[in-house]
Amino acid sequence: MQKIRNIAVIAHVDHGKTTLVDGLLEQSGTFGDHESHDERAMDSNDLEKERGITILSKNTAIRYKDHKINIIDTPGHADFGGEVERVLKMVDGVLVLVDAYEGVMPQTKFVVKKMLALGKKPIVVINKIDKDSADPDRVVDEMFDLFAQMDATDDQQDFPVIYAAARDGIAKLDMAEEGGDFQCIFETILESVPAPEGSPDNPAQAQVFTLDYDNYVGKIGISRIFNGRMKKGDPVKLAKADGEMVNGKISKLIGFMGLNRMEIQEAEAGDIVAIAGMETVDVGDTICDPVNPVALDPMHVEEPTLTVVFSVNNSPLAGQEGKHVTGNKIRERLEAEMTTNVAMKFESAGEGMFKVSGRGELQITVLAENMRREGFEFGISRPEVIVKEIEGVKCEPFEHLVIDVPEELGGTVIERLGKRKAEMKSMVPMGVGFQRIEFEIPARGLIGFRGQFLTDTKGEGVMNHSFMEFRPHSGTVASRQYGALISTEKGEAMAFSIFNLQDRGGMFIQPQDKVYEGMIIGEHSRSNDLSVNPIKGKAQSNVRSSGADEAIKLVPPRDMNLEKALEWIEDDELLEVTPESVRIRKRLLTENERKRASR
Ligand SMILES: Nc1nc2c(ncn2[C@@H]2O[C@H](COP(=O)(O)OP(=O)(O)OP(=O)(O)O)[C@@H](O)[C@H]2O)c(=O)[nH]1
Ligand SMILES: [Mg+2]
């Protein structure tokens, strides 16, 4: 039987998980000498590369000495936290990374709690020790405190600590050492992560933790084999969450090594492989011996907290930029998404309207962004939190929010959050003139807050939040402070009119952009909406003459990408998303309609 270790890499967003995995691949010699690879090689899909974040957990394997080490890199963003929980069930040990300056953050708490509850033995990696502001001793203490608060067992509390600058390939067991490489990480893994339990001679049992799709073989379940052997061509039974047993056959077995996937004939207990052949396979299903089928504990799939409505685009510019525009196409695409994405749900919400629920705004924007790249055109409504009735009480999701701000701006931010029903929990100095303030806040209060926060802190503030629990509904929260500048005309925006309008607020459009009646072209500097005409031109000669050029200096438009726009809109507004544009509009396009509706 081969010697195996299975580990997951977990941490708050951006603390360096994927970068560390690069180093593990590199320094174990798993990348061939001539194999070139990108930075953060595991972030393989386009959106991950562009945004520099991990969206889907992915597994790889390396060889170190006579061991195979299976490694699962997980996403750190709170919206994808459910994925981490499932991954943790598949491994016997974890590397918990924590930034040597930022220390314990909301998602660190979330993943540590899950990991401890599942009885995993952690290795703590204090990463980014190269940063000027790094304070590794403080961060080690924070981790000890966190473990204690979360009722770690003595064994868990007694975790090994590794200090690393993952980006530079440096790691060491003692801060005082010079240099150091990942050797100490490999050795610590072999020493402190238990070997997989289970035996290849028992009846087969493998549990699926991630789904993949391939045009040739169909749905693929990436699975950990807990017992027995899996062979290509073997008949199996698929045990579903509801207890149903489905007959199936392994049509293809895929193994992982470095960045490669290769077809294999057989795999045994302890290993992580991809298994094809079962069309109905789902996350949490057990693939078992057909004679002796025993299902493993089903997996907990987190409930969505946020919904938006996707709709057929019905703006005056509909159908001009997209390839797929009909309700049927949108429905098919959403259905396809839900077959591999267990964290999201969708249901019909009337003619050409689809209610999509997920764990947070990022999860929803990632789906929308992928769709527009595939040529879809659609509308999206403002995100709404899901309200649940618990023991007769109306409850809503609450989040744990941590902000780091320059000391002099703390007051402003606290005041703003107060209006959004946030409750301050602690405030501590962070050195270098910053303070860290922690809050508990209804998720509703966070919608649209990020833009305001970045303006208030001149881009210097950092905010992070993660889901806590459902709590009784907290009443009305303040929403967007400013009104919208709404176009009264259809046509092309003119520099001259934008110039005249820019005193009224921040513009979202530039000259030559297409506009229509009811489209929102900027944010008013006051709280009411204002109807304006952005297509009024002036005689060309005046604009072009050199003296007048000076006069029409335009402030660059505010970049309203999908994410920012989605945060910005109110209930009576919609986003219009096409492969080329993200426009913001009023649901009701004419002023008359809006007046009538407000009566
Ligand atoms: N200074 C410094 N920066 C680092 C180090 N390790 C990683 N980074 C940087 O930190 C950023 C985030 O790194 P990632 O590896 O993508 O972090 P991650 O934890 O995988 O992030 P998510 O998957 O999005 O949660 C990148 O810009 C890295 O270059 C380090 O040791 N020192
Ligand atoms: Mg990552």
Task: Describe the protein's architecture and organization.
The chain has about 600 residues and is of the alpha+beta class. Helix content is about 25%, strand content about 35%. The protein contains 17 helices and 35 strands. The strands form six sheets. Strands 18, 19, 20, 21, 22, 28, 30, 32, 33, 34 and 35 form an eleven-stranded mixed β-sheet that branches. The protein has an eight-stranded antiparallel β-sheet with strand order 12-11-17-8-9-16-13-14, covered by helices on one side. Helix 3 packs parallel to helix 4 and helix 9 crosses helix 16. The relative contact order is 0.09. The structure holds guanosine-5'-triphosphate (GTP) and magnesium ion. Magnesium ion (MG) binds near residues 17, 18, 43, 54 and 73.
Keywords, please?
single chain, 599 residues, alpha+beta, 11-stranded mixed beta sheet, 8-stranded antiparallel beta sheet, 17 helices, 25% helix, 33% strand, globular, binds guanosine-5'-triphosphate, binds magnesium ion
As a whole number of angstroms, the C-alpha radius of gyration is: 27 Å
Number of DSSP helical runs: 17
Largest sheet: 11 strands, mixed
Structural class: alpha+beta
Bound molecules: guanosine-5'-triphosphate, magnesium ion
Number of strands: 35
Amino- and carboxy-terminal Cα gap = 75 Å
